[in-house]
Amino acid sequence: MSTGPEKVLDSLTAGLIRVKEARRLRTGSAAVSCYYRVVVPVSDPDGQHSSASSRMSEEEFIPTGRHDSLRSDGQIMRASQTNRAPKVSVIIPTYKTADLIATCLDSVFAQTYSDFVAMVVNDGSPDTPELERVLQPYMDRIVYIKQENKRAAGARNNAIRQAQSEFVAFLDSDDTWMPDHLSSQMQLFAENPSLDLVYCDAMLVYQLGDECKFMERNPSNGEVTFEALIVERCQIPISTVVARKKALVDAGLFDEKLPRCDDYDMWVRTAFSGAKIAYSRNLGANLAADRPGSLSQSRARMIEGYWNILEKFKRTLPLKDADRVTVDARAAEIRARYLLEEGKCKMAACQFEEARQLISEANKHFQKSLLSLALLGLSIAPHATAKLMPFWAKIRTAASA
């Protein structure tokens, strides 16, 4: 392709026309959501051409008909877009889910609510070549961001910062939405403009085909407050959440240092900062409940993460006396649950002395006769006690009672 002086002049002229048009539109009524990335061929002393590019300032919106997004490496990926910011940015982190992302995106584009843009964040996934092959048919309809691995929290934060929308919605790449999910959630904001974050029920889908409602297993009852979230009277599935971007930014965004449970940490801090949260019992999503390799696979690790976050709140939040009592009590209970789960893991591995110590420490909190019986069994007949592992589901229930 020729890159002579005529082509350079054409590029410069086109860029100047677009800048002039942007300044004209700036005083008009239409809101323009995207930036135009000007790329001008520049001749170097050897007669070669390089690219000098810049992103326009926020005041210099250029209508390109697409919603463009800068990747972390500076490359712009594109998505079809109207000449104004969408109401909602749908944020989809992906890591080793190339085989699932198409189904996820199909559920997004099947929404009855249409005022949104989908943002897919490749979190340094090792299956990137396959992921990008699968994404190719969607590239004109999504914003694609590619970054080094920062886990889900870092991926979500990156997309939140780049989002031009008033609202953000979250969807994990192994989950899917019901067709009316966004419509139902945005209706809650329309009915109560004071809301900052909403969520809803979902269907937990297991690999063997079993299903159950999220709120049957993880209920939400009463008003969603800091205290309700601490004691898990209300529990929030992230793939149903729609929130005002400002509320999440004001709360400090997701904590990228946390290895797990960063969504729980985010919701609690959002409530603590004064955000108003509500929910509906509509089924809005299908959630992959037991996908191999997912963070939720290790019960002990998840409980440990929960406990560590409660300890973090004690250190970092300016808690009132009543709130501190609530957090202290909950942290003690979750620590005991973690010790019990670790004890069961040690018992399954025939590490009986470690199991006995962990379960004994847990029972200082629970003081359950069933746990005392298990400890006696570990002292007298550890192998026989270990064979009763299926019975330990009852012990979990007893400890939770």
Describe, in plain words, how this protein is organized in 3D.
It is a single chain. This protein folds into 3 domains: 5-55, no CATH class; 69-297, Spore Coat Polysaccharide Biosynthesis Protein SpsA, Chain A, CATH 3.90.550; 302-400, no CATH class. It contains 15 helices and 13 strands. Helices cover 44% and strands 18% of the residues. The relative contact order is 0.08. Strands 5, 6, 7, 8, 9, 10, 11, 12 and 13 form a 9-stranded mixed sheet that branches.
Primary descriptors:
401 residues, alpha/beta, Spore Coat Polysaccharide Biosynthesis Protein SpsA, Chain A, 3 domains, 9-stranded mixed sheet, two-stranded antiparallel sheet, 15 helices, 44% helix
Would you identify the CATH architecture of the largest domain?
A: Alpha-Beta Complex
Q: How many structural domains does the protein architecture include?
A: 3
* CATH fold description of the largest domain: Spore Coat Polysaccharide Biosynthesis Protein SpsA, Chain A
Would you tell me the overall average pLDDT?
Answer: 81
Molecular shape: globular
Strand content: 15-25%
Tell me the distance between the termini: 74 Å
Number of distinct beta strands: 13
**Which CATH first-tier class of the largest domain would you pick?**
Alpha Beta
Task: Outline the low-pLDDT stretches.
Answer: 1-82
H and E order: HEEEEEHEHEHEEHEEHHEHHEHHHHHH
Structural class: alpha/beta
| Tally of helical segments | 15
* CATH homology group of the largest domain: Spore Coat Polysaccharide Biosynthesis Protein SpsA, Chain A
Rg calc: 26 Å
- Level of helix content? 40-55%
Largest sheet: 9 strands, mixed
